[in-house]
């Protein structure tokens, strides 16, 4: 295979919405769907999220199931996935759970003026091993 294998997962309502205007996270899935997504997530190397989602939901983006985390470890992988943030502006909360949970680290992708903004936001965080 000459390109990365990419999976896009997104829950959507029947009217084509992925969120509403309320301050609380809109849950469009049930427990069976969350379990299926956790299984899919456990097979991946990284998980990508946009800065808007990071600001609105403060997600942890972890593998939820202890059994799936153990299976990852048995295969010589970290229990959780590498987390990747995409941001145009470079503006995000460096104290977000995205950066402080899991065992695989996190990377930030940005460009232009966002680079300096992101660097300032991450300046006080410990460097990755």
Structure, explained:
With 129 residues, this protein is an alpha/beta fold. 33% of the residues lie in helices and 11% in strands. The chain contains five helices and three strands. It has a three-stranded parallel β-sheet with strand order 1-2-3. The longest helix has 12 residues, at 31-42. The two termini are 30 Å apart. 16% of the residues are buried.
Structure in a nutshell:
The chain has 129 residues and is an alpha/beta fold. It contains 5 helices and 3 strands.
Characteristics:
129 residues, 3 strands, three-stranded parallel sheet, globular, alpha/beta, 11% strand, 5 helices
Q: Which spans have pLDDT < 50 for at least 5 consecutive residues?
A: none
Structural class per helix/strand content?
alpha/beta
Strand order of the largest sheet: 1-2-3
* Strand percent estimate: 5-15%
Q: Compute the number of strand runs.
A: 3
How can the largest sheet be summarized?
Answer: 3 strands, parallel
Mean pLDDT across the residues is 87
Give the end-to-end Cα distance, rounded to a whole number of Å: 30 Å
Name the overall outline.
globular
Share of helix, binned: 25-40%
Number of helices: 5
Secondary-structure element order, N to C? HEHHEHEH
Q: Rg to the nearest angstrom?
A: 16 Å
SSE map:
Elements lengths: L30 H12 L3 E5 H7 L8 H9 L7 E5 L10 H4 L5 E4 L3 H10 L7
Parallel strand pairs: 1-2, 2-3
